[in-house]
Write a structure and sequence with these properties.
Length: 236
């Protein structure tokens, strides 16, 4: 959720705040106290400045980084966050994160117009949330309910016209959602069809997760009145 909502972790935020403390105005209280703080043996100031961001700033800049203006400092912070994100992607526990957008930005599924139930299903899929846990059997009766089994059980790759090499077809489609209404007619048609297909799949997943059979009638009319469809095809 940190990545979806573009919120740094607590550790990253503490590093940024510690680096900011060295670029305060001359009349700031902390700046006035620094000469006294440096003389104290019990001072923890050096430990506060022994962070990855401060080290990177000291190594990169040819002049003291307390002379950086706000825009330059923000640029270094963005680089620092991007490096941390790239490192996290390489870890074994970042499987869900690797299926999200590779850029540090607010995920469009959080702000693009859609019904609340549509947004809820998209966020739940992104988060890998299965309410009954992986020990619950799938409605097909062949295997236990897991994300990978649901992908193959519902034939998501063929339904979304994606190759089998794609690990998470729904996330692959979500990563391509435009952030502004497209002007080309074929692009509008593409997203109209894929949006309906996407939510028909998520509706089935929702029903499987709760152990109930889905209604074929509701499936046919699902998402036809979605605000996303009116947003993606604006009237001229």
């Amino acid at each position: 959720m940190h990545h979806l909502s573009h919120i740094p972790t607590m550790k990253e935020r503490s590093h940024i705040l510690q680096a900011k403390s060295s670029s305060l105005p001359d009349d700031a209280l902390l700046t006035c106290l620094l000469p006294c703080v440096h003389t104290l043996r019990s001072s923890q100031w050096r430990k506060l400045h022994n962070t990855a961001l401060v080290k990177a700033l000291v190594k990169t800049l040819s002049e003291p980084f307390d002379r950086l203006n706000a825009s330059e400092f923000c640029q270094y912070c963005r680089t620092f966050l991007q490096q941390n994100f790239t490192f996290t992607l390489q870890q074994r526990y970042s499987k869900l994160l690797s299926c999200c957008r590779p850029s540090l930005s607010l995920d469009p599924i959080l702000w693009i117009p859609m019904h609340p139930i549509e947004r809820s299903r998209l966020i739940r899929w992104r988060s890998g949330w299965l309410p009954r846990g992986s020990s619950w059997p799938c409605l097909c009766g062949l295997q236990k309910l897991t994300k990978q089994h649901v992908i193959h059980c519902l034939h998501m790759h063929s339904f979304l016209h994606l190759p089998l090499e794609v690990e998470d077809p729904i996330s692959c489609v979500l990563n391509q959602i435009p952030t502004r209404p497209p002007r080309l007619l074929h692009t509008q048609t593409y997203w109209t069809l894929h949006w309906i297909a996407l939510h028909r799949l998520l509706y089935k997943v929702d029903m499987i997760q709760h152990g109930t059979n889905y209604d074929p009638t509701a499936l046919i009319t699902l998402s036809l009145d979605s605000p996303f469809l009116f947003w993606i095809t604006p009237t001229t």
